[in-house]
Amino acid sequence: MSDMNDPNSIVPLGGSSCTGRDAATETVTSSSPATAVPAQQGSKEEGNVELRESITLPTINHRVLLSLKESAKVIGTKGSTIQSIREINHVKIGLSEKQLGCSDRVLSCAGRIINVANSLGQIVSILKEGSAGSPSLSLPAEKYAFHFLNPILPPPTREEFKDLSLDEINKIGTLRLMVTNSQLSSIIGKGGSRIKSLKERHGVKIVASRDFLPDSDERILEIQGLPRAVTDVLLKISEILLNELDITFASERRYYPHLRSSSPSNAVTLAASTSGVQIGVSNYLNNEFKATIKIPESYVGAIAGRRGNRIANLRKFTKTKIIVEKKIDKNVTDVDPDNRTFIILGDHFKNVKLAESMLLKNLDVEIEKRKSRLAKK
After folding, report:
1. What is the pLDDT of residues 79-115, one digit of tens each?
2. Where is the region Disordered (predicted)?
3. Number of folded domains in the chain?
4. For a designed S-S bond to 59, which of 24, 45, 65, 345 qualifies (C-beta 3.0 to 4.6 A apart)?
């Protein structure tokens, strides 16, 4: 393994804002439902409008393990490739910081499930670019010291894909999706029924790593197939994870590139999303997770709701504590008077991420509502 590695943050490779727009913050690295908590309703008509505007499409965050060489290819010259993926698919996408002595990086992609699936399918295609027409079927795969980067599945052969041309076979790629052990159980299904259906329906190969990624509860789910087929499988996997969101999973540690000598407790310190440094989740105490979000002062009232009703509903739904920082005197130095800090505390990482995602979705809804009102004036 890459006997290596250190810090934790997801580095956004572009100018994404921290409003949670275009996608819910990952890093649930799993699933985040996009149903926002409705604001306090006034008249029946206004309430219906509020409710309609607060309903958004489901969002997901997927994490993918990449080698340094693959990461460079995804980033592209001066970040052009990853920026193109971001703009075309309207997702938040970024990579963990490159660590000295580490041969891997983690790509995080968050947004609407169709957009995330398309983005990762595009990445499969990008990683295969330049191999079409070459004798790639006979070339041995590159060997890595960090064995999780080495393929689990054998390369595709003509015998397996008799209906495909050599050019099409050369387009078959592999994606190393990172999933927690609980998520993997959901994907496999009872008696392996779900994973078998995924493979047969979409014409792909899927296999999970036997080992957990270092100091984590995550494993690699390797998906091999044509980019379009990988996209379709990711759509279905996202649906499975979203539909089973209510299952109470134990707090599971996420993997990040780090040195083996680092403290295991540091393994739970994660970037909250690819949207910026203003939000983050960390292991606050041994068994309590914490997220902090900066909300523009002008939106605090709408986010909190009348008499705090909206925040109260969010606390109850996500089973978390949400603390709103008191309004700061603009005359006080060394503070940010234009933003208010919201602190989310919870015993489970998943619950904290859910609250964070929904809070950002509510902010997104309020921003869009104000834009709409200004446009009508």
Report:
1. 999 999 999 999 999 999 888 888 999 999 999 999 9
2. 1-49
3. 2
4. 24
